[in-house]
Design goal:
This protein is α/β, with parallel strands linked by helices and 326 residues long. The protein has a single domain, classed as TIM Barrel, CATH 3.20.20. Helix content is 39%, strand content 15%. It is built from 11 helices and 10 strands. The protein has an 8-stranded parallel β-barrel, surrounded by 5 helices. α2 crosses α3 and α4 packs across α5. The protein is globular, with a radius of gyration of 19 Å.
Length: 326
């Protein structure tokens, strides 16, 4: 396994982070085996959140029994469980109750990385940053950051932290793939480079569209997230396969298949290798539901695309209208 520094923290994390939402896996034993497989292959970076009303954190907590010190553990905060109106957003009260609940579910005394899962326009940035600083000073959290914040608000948080001598954001989490390049490349990558921030990028395979299983003009496999009618509300309710698999996307998939043959790799591995080839990316997040998916994704490490092949994928994926796959 390759390792990279998480921004300027000095912490080394595996080049692929294991995401543990397990949205497509109901068998908890398979979930635990998937986590175990990643750890056995050298992964030391795990990402979770309040997925499945806390199920994800509970599974991670069970999987890490006796192995907690091997892992850089990240979870996120926005909503908390309960019905009262103050159980959503980034108010001080909700952040403080959220971290305690996450620690219980994860069966740990501290979090290596605590991210704000989304932006809350109602909560003052300075209050948010001060609350995170309190958690760092209490030893419950070691480092902090955010996910999916407007870039101007990330800059504001960095400025507040610097001005008030509060714990700074050290890592950002945003979407990035061959099918969604605009946001990360135009604003976030330069921000990470200038301020020494780590970056975790999710949906590197665009919910499997870049895996080689899907082609334009053919029906998606029934066992895939794209194989259920979105109108039925059973799958990707915001997306339709015919709209997602554009002509440009299909050309990218064709190139991934061809390059996979050249390198003796799968299309997924080529797509992830393209993400890894960007120095501003610390680790793409792999949302695996099965141990064999871990094996496949981790095969993207330990080698690199040749310059002309990277340039070819860059050209084919030059953004038109970016799509969101979350």
């Amino acid at each position: 396994m390759d390792f990279r520094y998480l921004g300027r923290t000095g912490i080394q994390v595996s080049a692929i982070c294991l995401g543990t939402a397990f949205r497509g896996q109901t068998d908890e034993n398979l979930c635990l085996r998937t986590i175990d497989r990643a750890l056995d292959l050298g992964c030391n970076f795990i990402d979770t959140a309040l997925y499945g009303e806390g199920r994800s954190e509970e599974l991670v907590g069970r999987a890490l029994k006796g192995r907690r010190e091997e892992v850089v553990l990240c979870t996120k905060i926005f909503g908390t469980l309960g019905n009262d109106p103050n159980r959503v957003g980034l108010t001080r009260i909700n952040i403080l109750r959220g971290v305690e609940a996450s620690l219980r579910r994860l069966r740990t005394d501290f979090l290596d990385l605590y991210l704000l899962h989304s932006y809350d326009p109602r909560a003052p940035v300075e209050e948010i940053v001060r609350t995170l600083d309190d958690l760092v000073r209490q030893g419950k959290v070691r480092h902090v950051g955010c996910s999916n914040w407007p870039v101007r608000k990330v800059v504001e948080a960095l400025w507040v932290g610097d001005k008030r001598n509060l714990a700074p954001f050290v890592c950002l989490q945003y979407q990035y793939s061959l099918l969604n390049r605009t946001e990360f490349e135009t604003e976030l990558a330069p921000l990470c480079a200038e301020f020494g921030l780590g970056s975790m990028t999710y949906s590197p395979l665009a919910i499997g569209l870049l895996s080689g299983r899907f082609r334009r003009g053919t029906a998606p496999p029934a066992d895939s997230p794209w194989g259920v009618d979105p109108a039925a509300g059973l799958s990707r309710s915001r997306y339709a396969f015919a709209e997602a698999m554009t002509e440009q996307a299909d050309r990218i998939v064709a190139a991934l298949i061809e390059l996979g043959r050249k390198y003796g790799r799968t299309p997924s591995q080529v797509a992830i290798a393209w993400v890894l080839d960007h120095p501003e990316v610390t680790a793409p997040i792999l949302g695996a539901d099965l141990p064999e998916q871990v094996d496949d994704a981790f095969g993207a490490t330990g080698w690199a695309l040749e310059r002309e092949d990277r340039a070819r994928l860059d050209e084919l994926s030059t953004p038109a209208t970016p799509a969101k796959f979350s």
